Amino acid sequence: MDIQKATRITPSERQFAWQQLEFYGFLHFGMNTMTDSEWGEGRESPKTFHPTALDVDSWIETLKESEMRAVILTCKHHDGFCLWPSDYTDYSVKNSPLGNTQGDIVKLVSESCKKYGLKFGVYLSPWDRNAKSYGKGKEYDDYYINQLTELLTNYGEIFCVWLDGACGEGENGKVQEYDWERYYETVRRLQPNAVLNICGPDVRWCGNEAGSVRKAEWSVVPKRLTEAEIVSSLSQKEDDGKFSRIITSTDEDLGSRSQIADEEELVWYPCEVDTSIRIGWFYHSDEDRSVRTSTELFEIYKKAVGGNSSLLLNVPPTPEGKLHPNDVASLKGLGEKIRKLRENVVENFHVVASSGDFVKGSIWQAEKEDTLPTLEIFFENEEEICGVILQENIRDSQRIELFEIYGKVGESWKFLGSAETVGHKKIFEHEPVKTKEMNIIFRQSREYPTLASLNFMKTEEYANED
Predict the structure, then answer these.
(1) Residue 204: enclosing H or E segment and its boundaries?
(2) Which one GO biological process term can you cite for this protein (predicted)?
(3) What is the pLDDT of residue 466?
């Protein structure tokens, strides 16, 4: 194949900015929180929504301590209850005991994010089990666009509009066919810097909710994948010759040379890993003892963020309006581990490249004629190394397809492992070795490899606060 077809694909500015966030939170809070359910039916009285000790600042402060850089709020879930006083429905906080001012949870969260320096995003469920117009085509789309417009014009800058394909029957027994392109146009017009995630063209789902990632995660993938993600269930409608090979986010290989060889069009469509700190997405008291530990969350973080993906971690507030102490403890422990990971790297080393000038803090690019690009690393002192953190210059596409790492132990070179992709970031852990020299050999790349950053992890015992 003409590999330049792939290397011409690069992220948009909004995608590049999103990728730098790496780790952000999901707040599932709403009517389901009060009724101890995951999917409500939209029949509960607005009076049921009554958090008696609401403390939004404590939510955001805790998420910031965990090293999250942004937050997405479930402004409306499938039950249709709105966490802001929408002008287009009575089924909202304005008719709750909190009223318009105290009850505008969207305003409280967006302002708290600004206070603590986090970006703010919104989730607006396309399925609305309370709306009478659901299933009536354009009538419902108008309703949805009106609510989306409220969120995008009244709460400051929005970094992300998170969309899923949840779709069920309305009261009339009809299923709504969503006008996705109209939704996208509204977001692009009102919040041009916001990414559209999951059922959108900017960021795709990893394919599971367990927090697991692929062995090789590609951001350059077939354009057909963006079209499949806006369909809640895939079925063959007609034999048009294109149905024979469906590709979805659940497939293991999305962007290797063999996968993209015959594709007509490619796009930059990076991955988001979505998971919850608990078993469910909304708070349930019977899960208080099932909260993921900081150690488990740290492993998920390293694999997701260090596997060319972002990590979206759900943290559900309690019916009272606080975060449970078990969740807070895990999140604070996670933050300590992430900070230690960032800080515990070798400071003093220099690199000799087989081609191209390698300068720390600058972008390195091997020459096209270099058939075996190699980086020789020399540490000022002997170090015990347990991993390498690499970042590609993704503004120049994703290029690295296979690299190997070696450490010099005594007079011999020890093979420490290999991996296929790097992308935005690769956290490559290996057995600890004491060494003063390491080599990174790029066995296969698309034209040439690039690096925007290179760090070496010093062996560290992470305190177990769990």
Answers:
(1) strand 204-205
(2) glycoside catabolic process
(3) 61
Say if residue 21 is in the same domain as residue 142. Answer: yes
**374-398 mean pLDDT:** 97
pLDDT at 164 over 50: yes
Residue 53 has pLDDT above 70, yes or no: yes
Q: Which of 306, 325, 342 is the last residue of a domain?
A: 342
Burial code (b: 16+ CB inside 10 Å, e: under 16) for 306-321 equals: bbbbbbbbbbbbbbeb
Q: Strand (E) positions, 224-372?
A: 266-268, 271-276, 309-314, 349-353, 364-365
Asked, for residue 463, whether it belongs to a domain, the answer is no
**Listed residues 342, 363, 388: the one ending a domain:** 342
196 and 236, same domain (yes or no): yes
In whole angstroms, give the CA distance from residue 442 to residue 403: 4
Whether 302 and 431 map to the same domain: the answer is: no
Q: Are 46 and 11 in contact (CB under 8 A)?
A: no
CA gap 448, 445 in Å, rounded = 5
Token pair in block for residue 298:
């740290």
Residue 65's CATH number: 3.20.20.80
Question: Looking at the domain assignment, is residue 465 inside a domain?
Answer: no
Terminal Cα distance for the chain, rounded = 50
pLDDT value at 96 more than 80: yes
Higher pLDDT, 214 or 71: 71
- Kindly give the pairing relationship between strand 374-391 and strand 426-445: antiparallel
pLDDT at 48 over 70: yes
Domain of 418?
A: 349-458
pLDDT of residue 231: 46
Helices 56-65 + 105-116 axis angle, to 10 = 40
d(CA 396, CA 59): 38
Query: Do residues 99 and 170 share a domain?
Result: yes
211 burial via Cβ count (<10 Å: 0-12, 13-18, 19+)? buried
- The reported pLDDT for the residue numbered 227 is 80
Together in a domain, 287 and 387 = no
Torsion of CA 120, 126, 127, 132, to 10 degrees: 110
Report whether 162 contacts 114 (CB < 8 A): no
- As for how many domains the chain has, the answer is 2
